[in-house]
UniProtKB/TrEMBL annotation:
The lineage of its organism: Bacteria, Bacillati, Actinomycetota, Actinomycetes, Micrococcales. SUPFAM superfamilies: 4'-phosphopantetheinyl transferase. Pfam families: ACPS. It comes from Marihabitans asiaticum. Signal peptide: none annotated. One of its GO terms (molecular function) is holo-[acyl-carrier-protein] synthase activity. This is 4'-phosphopantetheinyl transferase. Residues 110-216 form the 4'-phosphopantetheinyl transferase domain.
Amino acid sequence: MMNRMALRVGLAEAVVADEPSLRDLLDDTELARADRKRDPAPFVSAHALARRTLARVLHVDPADLAFERRCPTCGSERHGKPSIVARPDWSFSLSYTDTLAVIAVAQGPSVGIDVEHVEEADFDSFDRLTLAEEEGAAFAQVHGRDLLAARAQVWARKEAILKATGHGLVVDPTEVVVTGPESPAALVDWRAEESRPEAVSLADADLRTPDHRCAVAVLAEDALEVHRID
Ligand SMILES: CC(C)(COP(=O)(O)OP(=O)(O)OC[C@H]1O[C@@H](n2cnc3c(N)ncnc32)[C@H](O)[C@@H]1OP(=O)(O)O)[C@@H](O)C(=O)NCCC(=O)NCCS
């Protein structure tokens, strides 16, 4: 049998900075969105990272990049997964917290990335809101900060898949079953009524920022290989 090539996904991360010069990279629509935020810094840092990274990968000027969106649920072009106008052969995905932004970039199949701060997984209803019944067992013997890190990793796996499909949290994450925190990342079962993607490849991604957990998904059968592009 022929060995399949691993699909290479580029990943870059940036610590959120309240740095006025980052605004110069954004277009008017992005600046207007930034200024509607209580704290614009995470949005500005994330979108500056996206423009810088995509410009480098595609050999274009950051200002020449244009984005469009499409929601697979309602067809609206006002929200949903963003893509690059004129470069449908590339896919990217952006995720950010109050302190960290990450981007994944792939040529070919749709990509999704999610990053979570481990402290954000510190709430009582985590299991009920996020996990299928059988997934909870994998967390039973994990406690303290290890538990938060395990929750954040599994949560990132589920959301990375839902960002690759473009559904986002329109799909209930309890209906997207993934492997437990001690096992290699993989989709185990899709129980949502929205159509199951034909193929999903999933991987955890190591970050330089130890208080976050991250996962990357592509809608392809090929194994995923995450490589740094920052
Ligand atoms: C996608 C989603 C899960 C991300 O939420 P989050 O964890 O708060 O945010 P993250 O930092 O991980 O990701 C945000 C980025 O994901 C991207 N994104 C937004 N919607 C997306 C979607 N449907 N699929 C994939 N990526 C999406 C955008 O780049 C967004 O950044 P921006 O808003 O600054 O442009 C959430 O926004 C969601 O569930 N959206 C779907 C809601 C929806 O479409 N409702 C209407 C249906 S008709």
